[in-house]
Design goal:
Strand order of the largest sheet: 5-4-3-2-1-12
Number of helices: 6
Structural class: alpha/beta
Order of helices and strands: EHEHHEEEEEHEHEEEEH
Strand content: 25-35%
Radius of gyration: 17 Å
Mean pLDDT: 97
Low-confidence stretches: none
Number of strands: 12
Oligomer: single chain
């Protein structure tokens, strides 16, 4: 028999979407949390590395953590009774950050996470600073309190970040993403395989929200603590829904405690 279920909606959409409409749709589908793709404030846009005006314009578009952009999601959370992972280029000095806020259904920011393993080798993240730490929030939902952590895109490929979340008691990890997940011409679906391994090795649920084609390849997906894919989208814009059995996750974490030792 299934236990208490946490329903996560992965918003596989571009940043010109009506956030209020997406929120209402997610609420109608019974979602507890909506996760948006990486750096949604600018749609993970790029700048011309040879043009300083282009670069500076990109940096100047960074938003504060307490500004109108984040407030938009806080209001949507209160209005729809949902939690959100809102992602953005965060204003910072001397460099901005690739960041995400976990916002609870009361509209309160309960977790602020900066991407730690930034893509420093390429545009646009060569203009960013890296985050230094990770933590877990105890998020109140209709399914009860859930220990939630965030990995931002390439963070999922490095064990130190996941280990910090495991050490802090994570049960579900939410991943805002922007890159090909299944149809990468060089590596195919290796990133999906990596997330499956992460979930199995750490005994937790993982949900990855990606941009649709042609920005990326869509394929937002969720994995259970045995590494099994429980939901995957197509390439088109859509809300991808996944249900995590919290009682099963907790039982497995007790049974397979030895895999949870960071």
């Amino acid at each position: 028999m299934a236990g208490r279920s946490l329903r996560v909606a992965m918003a596989q959409v571009t940043n010109d979407v009506d956030v209020d409409a997406i929120s209402a749709s997610a609420a109608e589908k019974g979602a507890d949390i909506v996760v948006f793709p990486e750096m949604f404030s600018n749609g993970y846009s790029r700048f011309d590395p040879e043009d300083e005006v282009s670069r500076q314009g990109w940096i100047d578009a960074a938003v504060p953590i307490d500004g109108a952009y984040v407030e938009r999601f806080r209001e949507a959370a209160r209005r729809n009774g949902l939690a959100f992972v809102a992602t953005f280029l965060e204003r910072g000095s001397p460099k901005p950050f690739n960041a995400a806020n976990l916002i609870d259904s009361n509209g309160d920011v309960v977790l602020h996470q900066r991407k730690r393993h930034i893509c420093f080798f390429d545009v646009p993240e060569e203009a960013c600073a890296a985050g230094e730490s990770s933590s877990v929030a105890r998020l109140r939902t209709d399914a009860g309190e859930v220990a939630v952590g965030i990995l931002i895109c390439m963070d999922r490929e490095f064990p130190d970040v996941a280990s910090d979340l495991v050490r802090d008691g994570a049960e579900v990890i939410l991943v805002p993403n922007s890159c090909p997940l299944v149809e990468d011409p060089a590596v195919g679906d290796v990133r999906v395989a990596g997330v499956r391994a992460l979930a199995f090795q750490s005994v937790l649920g993982v949900a990855v929200a990606n941009y649709p084609a042609p920005k990326d390849d869509g394929r937002s997906f969720a994995v259970d603590p045995l590494g099994r894919i429980i939901a995957m989208g197509g390439s088109q814009p859509e809300l991808v829904i996944a249900d995590f059995d919290l009682d099963r996750i907790r039982a497995l974490q007790k049974e397979d405690w030895f895999r949870r030792v960071p």
